Amino acid sequence: MAVPVTMTEILRTIPSEEQLGFGTIFTNHMFVMDYETGKGWHSARIVPYEEFEASPSNMTLHYGQAIFEGIKAFRTEDNRIVVFRVNDYLNRFNRSADHLCIPRINVEEVKAGLFQLLETEKDWVPHKRGTSLYIRPFIIATDPYVGVKVSDTYRLFIILSPVGAYYAAGFNPVSIKVEDKYVRATPGGLGEAKTPANYAMSLRAQVEAKKEGFTQVLWLDAIHRKYIEEVGTMNILFKINGEVITPALNGSILSGITRRTVLEVLRDWGINAVERQISIEEVYEAHAKGTLEEVFGSGTAAVISPVGELSWKGHKITINNNQTGKLAQRLFDYITGLQQGGESDKFGWVETVTKG
Ligand SMILES: *Cc1c(COP(=O)(O)O)cnc(C)c1O
Fold it and tell me: What is a single Pfam family found in this protein's UniProt entry (predicted)?
């Protein structure tokens, strides 16, 4: 069941693949759908990517009732357009919706709309290894009302952005500040939802860390300021004494699809991968004993991001000589190989949308 399409009259040209960065260029069309209490989700359609009008009293602008996702489509070596674990992302979208009192979507319906949009925009999926078409679904509340309540109307958008290879110049391990002043999320809060509020929470710490020369912050739990949570755009993994440890999901950590992918791949390789509480002291003690072998982040944008330095309360440690670890490199090569078709899809994570 295809949705109606309004083609744009102003076709933008597709940028050269060398120029691609992240998140600034968007394709010609987007998928849109509306919600109204009593009517449900309706009027799915593909329309030109363009500005839209909102009331100055739009509730999202005032109270932040909104959610989003971040998914990728790839062009494979044999020229198919594929998506990676798309159902997992769309199911997480619904779990985020529950946290924000936003009505759930029908995953199959939105997925069909996404596939139709990708078919329309397939020429925008770049070719080079490491490049992709970033998919950003999001839902905003649209009631014009400046009182605090749950909105009765919503709009879902899916916009697409071609992105360059994250590591065009090769891996570059990042330097991370372990945040001991600010917190990102609290027990019982919104930490496991993909919602703008969590990013609003993180900006000040991020600005201060940048000023101090760090790339990112690593968040600790809000109560004890002791247990490791995540990086805020990525989950975090530690290789200690041959075993990979990542903080267990506790409600304030975002349940990353890449995190899950990494854990499943590691277990498939016969490497012990455990999810449990892990404190920053434990990481520093492992470093002191010489058993902290690797640290790396996982997320859709970068896939794997090696960490070269951690700094906690002014005490800096260097991991693996500030070099990319063997396991981080192997995971990156294998997962990107799965995504762009070089590796056979033994896990059933890759779905073909259309011929390229
Ligand atoms: C999206 C996100 C991640 C990474 O999740 P993936 O599904 O792997 O992309 C990690 N932390 C936060 C806060 C996020 O929003």
Answer: Aminotran_4
Each residue's pLDDT tens digit, 196-229: 999 999 999 999 999 999 999 999 999 999 999 9
Read off the DSSP letter of residue 213.
T
Alpha-carbon gap, residue 22 to 346, rounded angstroms: 30
In this predicted structure, the answer to whether residue 232 has a pLDDT above a threshold of 90 is no
Give nearest CA residue, ligand 1 atom 12.
Answer: 233
Output the six-digit token pair for 41: 């989700």
10/143: higher pLDDT = 143
Q: Are residues 132 and 206 in the same domain?
A: no
Instruction: Identify the weakest region by mean pLDDT among 70-74, 168-172, 352-356.
Output: 168-172
Residue 108, helix vs strand vs coil: helix
- What pairing do the DSSP bridges indicate for beta strands 273-275 and 243-246? parallel
Phi-psi region of 293 (alpha: psi -120 to 50; beta: other; left: phi over 0): alpha
Q: What residue ranges line ligand 1, CB within 6 angstroms?
A: 70, 194, 198, 230, 232-235, 254, 256-259, 298-300
Atom of ligand 1 nearest to the CA of 231: 11
Which one, of 264, 268, 274, lies nearest residue 241 by Cα?
274
Considering only CA atoms, which residue is closest to atom 10 of ligand 1?
Answer: 234
181 lies in the same domain as 329: yes
Number of domains into which the chain is organized:
2
Q: Is 327 exposed, middle or buried (0-12, 13-18, 19+ CB in 10 A)?
A: buried
Same domain, 315 and 209: yes
Q: Specify if 169 maps to a domain.
A: no
